[in-house]
Amino acid sequence: MQKKFWLYLPLLALVTLASCKKEDDPEPDENELITTVELTLTGNGTSKVYTWKDVDGEGGNAPVIDSIVLAKDQTYTYALRFLDESKSPVENVTEEIKERDYEHLVVMTPSPVGSMTVTITDKDRNNRPVGLVGEIKTQATAVKGKLKVQLRHQPGVKDGSPIPGDDDANVDFDVEIK
């Protein structure tokens, strides 16, 4: 009988190891719900907040979007806030973005190309751009165009470029430079 026990010991060990519960992978880092983007521009003696707002989310009512009017050949400082107004009280997602700045990048793309130059001035803990604050310099001629604001969610893959990750927010403002 003892001989048979030793024959079954490896099988018992294999079953025991196989039945051990493996530690579950942590929950994936989910995208933020952003219903409102506020772009504050300060320069040329003024400060103004421009808003993109879609409180009911995709598929409902169209977003309400302010048009941006800027002066030619001027430099403005900008600051962005991202909000979730579907919650009560309103959640300022910007705070979480600041806490996890190493996972986020704001990409601002003007069109037509060359109508504005955007310079990011804030950095994450790895010395990579974040984009919540910076400067916008307008060109010297009048033009109408757009300013795309993207909040890129890049957990584990942020390398300072806009390519990895996906969008938490992707909004377009109409811009007139006059």
CATH class: Mainly Beta
> Which structural category do the helix and sheet elements fall into?
mainly beta
* Distance between the amino and carboxyl termini: 96 Å
Q: What is the count of structural domains? A: 1
Q: Quick one: overall form?
A: globular
What would you note in describing this structure?
With 178 residues, the protein is mainly β. It has a single domain (29-177), classed as Coagulation Factor XIII, Chain A, domain 1 (Distorted Sandwich). It is 14% helix and 42% strand. It is built from two helices and eleven strands, in the order αββββββαβββββ. The chain has helices at 2-19, 93-99; strands at residues 36-43, 46-53, 64-65, 68-70, 75-84, 91-92, 104-111, 116-120, 133-138, 143-153, 166-177. Strands 1, 2, 3, 5, 6, 8 and 9 form a seven-stranded antiparallel beta sheet that branches. A four-stranded mixed beta sheet has the order 4-11-10-7, with no helix packed on it. A hairpin with a 6-residue loop joins strand 5 and strand 6 (91-92). It is globular, with a radius of gyration of 25 Å. The N and C termini lie far apart (96 Å). Residues 153-178 are annotated as: Disordered. Residues 165-178 have a biased composition (Acidic residues). This is Type 1 periplasmic binding fold superfamily protein.
